[in-house]
Write a structure and sequence with these properties.
By secondary structure, this protein is α/β, with parallel strands linked by helices. An 8-stranded parallel beta sheet has the order 1-2-3-4-5-6-7-8. Helix content is 50%, strand content 10%. The chain is built from 18 helices and 8 strands. It has one domain: TIM Barrel (Alpha-Beta Barrel).
């Protein structure tokens, strides 16, 4: 409260400036609101490890903040009972009201979206600008093409050519659609961020495609996790993205135990970044805990941007402030993008924005205290990070819907 009084202009910007949430996922349908354990709100852990989540500082903080939102006791069971008692539309509205999220950019590639979630247009009503655009997850597109090929009776020797011809056509078609503003790769989850910039041999790719087709026909399941094949998909995506002038987001850093942490460091992408200088690359999730490496890449490569999301509310308040500071150590402030990584539950959006705004206020206030920034400069950083950088990068052509100054 003292900082708000001391730096009123900065506080107003941090707490009210409209947000373009540049990386999010779909919310559950009302009928599916209890499909996943609510403890996933503050962790990427699953299975037995998820039960320990309630003992993290990040979780305890989230529970207290939601208790204030729902006017209930701050213990976790009370919070869950309070949300369960609410009408679902009212729950969503309460979580979004006052957050001033003007636009959502939705990656609809999470497993379960088709069965459990609302699609992008449904989310428009929750934003102040009525805007919900789509990010295409390329591995999901590739997976569906492989299934189609597997079900058809094509000659085995032509499968790889068929696959990549179809993939290129689909990606170009997506790139031409105005409701699709970018692509995303989860190579980090599948084979790691050390994507090779050089082409793989035709024989290796042919054998990979044949293996995927045979596996699908035998088991009915398919997961694309072949190093050379995945790398080829990424390189094709980067080329097409440059042609249609749309960014490519990469999952980096923080994720579930399907990730090999040593392969999640964006520093591994340096050869790839150099090989595609005309493609705009977005490093997602603060690259946490590799935020310093991500900041370095944004500083020395014109085509690299850093999203600082998912750490809200997955990381403690101190951890969030530390990550924001490390981001600002090197990252040009015209290349910082904010996101909530909201998914499944509306509370992920609420906590993401609430904590993200507070972290920015705390960190930038410290810079002003030390006379390293003026208040005007700090306000400009906020406005760029929350809105203008994403508006320009994704070519959204939006005007910020401003909140009136508090009196």
């Amino acid at each position: 409260m003292q900082r708000k009084a001391k730096y009123a202009q900065l506080a107003h910007a941090c707490m009210t400036y409209p947000i373009i949430d540049n990386h999010t996922h779909n919310l559950l349908k009302a009928s599916q609101r209890s499909t996943f354990p609510f403890e996933g709100l503050t962790t990427e852990a699953a299975g037995p490890a998820q039960v320990d989540t309630v003992h993290t500082v990040a979780h305890m903080r989230a529970s207290r903040q939601l208790a204030r939102l729902y006017t209930c006791p701050s213990d976790w069971d009370s919070v869950k009972r309070a949300r369960d008692a609410m009408d679902y539309d009212d729950l969503c509205r309460r979580c979004f009201d006052g957050m001033n999220i003007q636009a959502l950019l939705l990656d609809e590639g999470l497993g379960g979206i088709d069965e459990y979630c609302e699609r992008a247009p449904w989310h428009e009503k929750l934003t102040t600008g009525g805007v919900a655009k789509i990010i295409i997850r390329v591995e999901v597109v590739a997976q569906e093409i492989l299934k189609i090929i597997a079900k058809a009776e094509f000659p085995q020797e032509s499968l790889a050519d068929l696959f990549f011809t179809r993939l290129e056509l689909e990606l170009k078609a997506y790139g031409a659609r105005p409701d699709i503003v970018g692509f995303k790769s989860v190579a980090c989850y599948r084979t790691g961020l050390d994507v090779l910039p050089e082409p793989s041999s035709d024989q290796v790719i042919h054998e990979a495609v044949l293996g995927f087709v045979n596996t699908f026909n035998e088991s009915g399941s398919l997961r694309i996790a072949h190093k050379e094949f995945n790398d080829t998909i990424v390189r094709l995506t980067l080329r097409i993205a440059a042609e249609c002038d749309k960014p490519v987001q990469f999952h980096t850093g923080l994720g579930d135990n399907d990730i090999r942490l040593t392969k999640a460091n964006p520093a591994l992408m340096q050869p790839l970044i150099e090989a595609f200088p005309d493609t705009k690359i977005v490093l997602l999730h603060s690259s946490y805990p590799f935020t310093e490496e991500a900041g370095y890449l944004t500083a020395v490569y014109k085509n690299v941007y850093l999203d600082y999301g998912e750490i809200f509310p997955m990381v403690s308040g101190d951890g969030q402030r530390s990550a924001v500071r490390r981001m600002l150590d090197l990252c040009p402030t015209n290349k910082i993008l904010f996101s909530t990584d909201g998914h499944w539950w509306p509370e992920t959006y609420y906590l993401g924005v609430l904590q993200g705004r507070q972290a920015m206020l705390d960190v930038l206030s410290d810079y002003i205290d030390r006379d390293e920034l003026s208040e005007d400069e700090a306000v400009q950083i906020v406005e760029r990070a929350f809105f203008h950088n994403a508006n320009k990068l994704y070519d959204l052509n939006l005007q910020p819907v401003l909140a009136a100054p508090s009196t």
